[in-house]
Design the sequence.
């Protein structure tokens, strides 16, 4: 029995997908792919209720438990969203809390006895400037996080070489989430999960949503398509094609 327990613990430490199973969660194939990926940069373009936040919570907790003393930051656009993502982490942690006890815990912070910390932050630059040496940075609802805030948090990974995970449903053809998805280069693992790929969302519900939301919102929320605003006069692609960065500014 002891050998079996040791083998299970080793498997959970080495394989985040096995860790998810240890917690009683059976990941979808795409979730297992993300959990097992060694990529340092991951961007998840996923529909609502697809399980992207659960994957992020599992990655955060696995890092804190098995890569101590790790600093994990969860960044969201608002305090409410920060609380929701952190609650997922806390709920998962309670299933293994006896193995590595906590030394301090609040609604937005978890400090473990192994020296790891998981801190959830709302999207305000003044709340994040004091952090450095981040081992894992998770940006939730990234399409709604301002570009200047994203640019302010990236240097936190410079010395540590930490991982960066962006997850969101699309919100227009603007912002760093869109440009990273379309132009970020080969260094990113890109994963797209539409509602049709999620076995927990029924075709009947999707048809109801298509009728209720209309085609624009439905394509964005459930098909993960980047859409121009319905009130936008000129398409974003046309505007970008009219901009030439090689023009020099006149000095007066």
Sequence:
């Amino acid at each position: 029995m002891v050998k079996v327990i040791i083998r299970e613990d080793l498997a959970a430490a080495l394989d985040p997908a096995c860790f998810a199973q240890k917690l009683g969660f059976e990941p979808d194939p795409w979730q297992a792919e993300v959990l097992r990926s060694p990529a340092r940069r991951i961007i998840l373009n996923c529909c609502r209720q697809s399980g992207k936040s659960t994957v992020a919570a599992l990655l955060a907790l696995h890092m804190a438990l098995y890569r101590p003393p790790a600093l994990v930051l969860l960044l969201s656009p608002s305090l409410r969203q920060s609380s929701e993502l952190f609650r997922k982490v806390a709920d998962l942690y309670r299933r293994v809390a006896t193995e590595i006890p906590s030394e301090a815990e609040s609604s937005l912070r978890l400090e473990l006895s192994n020296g790891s910390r998981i801190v959830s932050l709302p999207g305000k630059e003044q709340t994040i400037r004091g952090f450095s040496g981040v081992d894992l940075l998770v940006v939730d609802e990234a399409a709604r996080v301002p570009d200047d805030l994203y640019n302010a948090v990236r240097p936190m990974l410079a010395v540590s070489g930490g991982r960066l995970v962006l997850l969101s449903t699309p919100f227009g053809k603007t912002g760093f989430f869109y440009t990273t998805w379309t132009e970020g280069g080969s260094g990113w693992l890109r994963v797209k999960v539409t509602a049709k790929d999620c076995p927990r969302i029924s075709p009947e519900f999707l048809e109801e949503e298509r009728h209720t939301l209309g085609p624009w919102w439905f394509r964005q929320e459930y098909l993960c398509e980047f859409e121009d605003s319905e009130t936008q006069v000129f398409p974003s692609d046309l505007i970008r094609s009219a901009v030439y960065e090689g023009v020099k500014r006149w000095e007066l």
